[in-house]
Design goal:
mainly alpha; Growth Hormone, Chain: A; 2 domains; 15 helices; globular
């Protein structure tokens, strides 16, 4: 069984664990906090993202030092304990569960991809992330049906029990199928630095910092979208005195379908080869995706009274999200040296989580239009930085960073 299969199956189990429990935290906290629901929700979400932000300072370093496989197993264990915590009526236990979930989230977004890059070459990483995004969207859709079935069979906490089981299965598969790989502290797996890699070899090189800007500029906007898409649809329906076109669950499934199409379309248009021999160079394609996503958000401001146009803009944005996940993973594979990949990727999570915390605490003071304008401008800025990376103006030409792989 190749790396493609041994990586995807455990990853999709953990991804399914995320999708199973995420939508049902509100119901759990509603039952636990009662009249203090609003304050309780804010507290739990802020604690979760704070744990993710703080852990991003050191988790990647530990993963590179002690092993990416161990980091992935630790992620599964923390998710499992987070799922167990909801069975308690103690607020303190719930808080610890939320903290575990926050730390697990950082490991989920760093340890898995770091292990994949350490286990295979760049072209395989590109193909694997393509299918990871596509199948991840399908898992998200299926998770909704599985969660409803688990509630019927196991009760209101069924989605969390099922999510915990998925985490355990993932940990078991990882322990049986994966070989360990490390960062710079394990010299036997560190690749020699070739001349082509020298421009990108520094921990704080301009290319690595520029990549951080591009990633944060898109993923921060995704969190804005998550918080505003449902209220915008309801407002559009109310302005015309009509019902919302589709239920939230149906809309989510349609968004995931658009994301899956975006990942496949991007992969077919852009070459996975380091030389960039595809029909569209990587930096042009990814910059176009950023610009189109920004345009979709800005168009929502002008079409907010028309549900059909708003939904079309939302589909366009989700299409761009699918393309983004494939493109940015390829850039990370080419720019970040494998010797400290998990460390850099975890540090990328720090400003992003800080931004989300600010959104939770102060986002309500900003109007929807202000947040959408910010999102659009942020994406256009990210597109400009990507073009600079592709043209070799920031930290060297990334197109040649993995020619030897």
């Amino acid at each position: 069984m190749g790396v493609f299969n041994t990586y995807l199956v455990p990853f999709l189990f953990v991804s399914g664990s995320n999708w199973l429990q995420g939508p049902y935290f509100y119901d759990v906290y509603k039952a636990k906090f009662g009249d203090d629901l609003e304050k309780g929700l804010q507290l739990m979400y802020v604690l979760g993202y704070t744990a993710a932000m703080v852990s991003s300072l050191f988790s990647g370093i530990l993963v590179d030092r002690f092993g990416r496989k161990r980091g992935c197993i630790c992620c599964c264990a923390l998710y499992f304990m987070s799922c167990l915590s909801v069975h308690s009526n103690s607020v303190n236990v719930l808080i610890f569960g939320r903290l575990f979930g926050g730390i697990a989230s950082t490991l989920f977004h760093t340890a898995f991809e770091s292990w994949l890059n350490g286990a295979t070459k760049a072209s395989v990483v590109h193909a694997t992330v393509q299918w990871q995004t596509t199948l991840g969207g399908l898992v998200a859709i299926c998770a909704g049906f599985v969660a409803r079935l688990s509630i019927l069979i196991l009760g209101p906490l069924g989605p969390f029990d099922t999510a915990g089981l998925c985490s355990l299965l993932s940990a078991l598969l990882i322990s049986l199928l994966w070989e360990e790989n490390y960062g710079k502290t394990k010299k036997k797996v560190v690749e020699p630095v070739s001349k082509e890699k020298k421009p990108n070899a520094g921990f704080c090189s301009f290319s690595i910092l520029a990549l951080a800007l591009t990633q944060v500029s898109f993923e921060a906007v995704m969190h804005i979208f998550i918080m505003v898409w449902s209220p915008i649809l309801k407002e559009a329906a109310a302005s015309n005195g009509s019902e919302v076109l589709v239920s939230p669950g149906t809309a989510f499934s349609m968004f995931m379908a658009a994301l899956m199409v975006g990942s496949q379309a991007f992969s077919r248009c852009v070459s996975a080869s380091p030389q960039g021999n595809g029909s569209i160079p990587m930096h042009y394609a990814l910059a176009s995706i950023y610009a189109f996503a920004g345009a979709c958000l800005l168009c929502v401001i002008r079409t907010r009274s028309n549900q059909h146009l708003v939904m079309l803009c939302f589909f366009g944005f989700e299409f761009c999200c699918g393309a983004y996940f494939v493109g940015i993973a390829s850039y990370r594979s080419r720019i970040i040296p494998d010797s400290f990949r998990a460390s850099v990727m975890s540090w990328y999570r720090l400003p992003q989580n800080f931004f989300v915390i600010c959104l939770i605490l102060f986002g309500g003071q900003l109007g929807v239009d202000s947040r959408m304008v910010f999102g659009g401008v942020s994406l256009f800025f990210g597109a400009a930085v990507i073009l600079l990376l592709g043209w070799g103006k920031v930290g060297g030409d990334v197109s040649s960073s993995k020619k030897n792989m």
